[in-house]
């Protein structure tokens, strides 16, 4: 129906309702009166004109009544009330009296018929048109404003695949009540029972204020059901219009394992980054590229992206230029090998960076066990070259990315990172540059991490391979790790090893189970296979050894390790002689030195 046809239809319907209202009101007051009196005539004409006048004034004829709600009912109330008031005034002026009883009854019948005529289509639509048989029965977690908004959208959206059948909320004052005709069936601990009784196929978590711990608790209850669990979109995406309220996203493993974000000291970071030249090694890697993204938000004068792989450097360069095209940041790319000291010196000389973030490293444990000489070249010699070049050109702050595997290392990778930490602390003692290291655990979603591997195995139908049922690891998200690195640079005084309080470690087998459930699969169908620990692996990781522990936080959730003894002569020996050592001997040498085995150190020095 066209807009004009719709307007004329509503005007005709309302005219009929107004005239019928006067007739019924008069009949109730004066059942024996047959003739049309002057009073009734005045009331009828005034009501008719006033009703249409106020209807246009309050845009009553422009409302989409299939979505009518309280707001529309309030407008109807205003239109009819003002119409009756005007009619009473006109009657007083014309007849010097007001028929209060007729007008009161007219107001009530008028409100009933106009409201009923408008809400009839909404009621018919909601009752008969909204529930196709193939809709998935959905349980909404959270009966607050967000949950109610989601339920209303799903009820009104005929094309939505989901239909809400119950709420879950821990607020006891809401339980056993109905919201939008949907019952609040119980609390979070009752999710399993509710899902079974109501044959729930989908669960949507609608509590934007949840922290990671609370979300984890709710998800564990949802995981006991066979329903698919999703979340409402991020509030900022809703507000910016990127997504609608019924475009739900799957719960990600980052939602469960990532912790609440650390608040950055924006002023201190801005002081040492804004309008400065910043150089990032390994800028194409997972951590390096995220550091570049985070640093760019503080508007450095120039950002030098240094890396060995041209494709990854090109990718992050294009991304940053597009994301920050409205700024004056100069993005510079340099392809360089960390073992080429002369090239690093030249790069430092050309750009004169104020801050260097050293993220380049070999980090894959099993691969480095098979190629320990490559770990030495990249993680030890490469770090020494970058640090020495930074020192020569008086860089203000040098931040090295380390790992929890450097604590009591059992692998070549961990050993080389521990020795690289010692080099960094040594350079801090002999240079005007502030040298620090930042140590953290496994990063979710980085290349070579367990998450992408598990996802690929699940896509292929399983099984998911876990090395040991008791294997545990600390986890953090890439943005969180990058923020820690940036904050460490602002806190640096020189020589520190910064460590993040990473909370509780996570069992890898539990991570695998959660990931299977998150992808909507059954654990028994996909399966989990234990393959045995790989060379160099530990059952658990540590962030500080007993000699390094400093119990006080220097910043919320950030600790600093005590400086342990440095073995620079022994490291120089390894750098000079690693090519002549067979792989097993080299591996043994690295592990002994990194673990500070005194007898071995004396033997090594004597050699």
TrEMBL record:
Keyword tags: Membrane, Transmembrane, Transmembrane helix
Bilayer-crossing regions: 7-29, 35-61, 73-94, 100-121
Keyword Transmembrane helix on entry: yes
CDD domains reported for this sequence: UDP_invert_4-6DH_SDR_e
Species of provenance: Metabacillus halosaccharovorans
Name of the protein described by the UniProt record: Polysaccharide biosynthesis protein
Domain (Polysaccharide biosynthesis protein CapD-like): residue spans on this chain: 278-561
Protein family (similarity comment): Belongs to the polysaccharide synthase family.
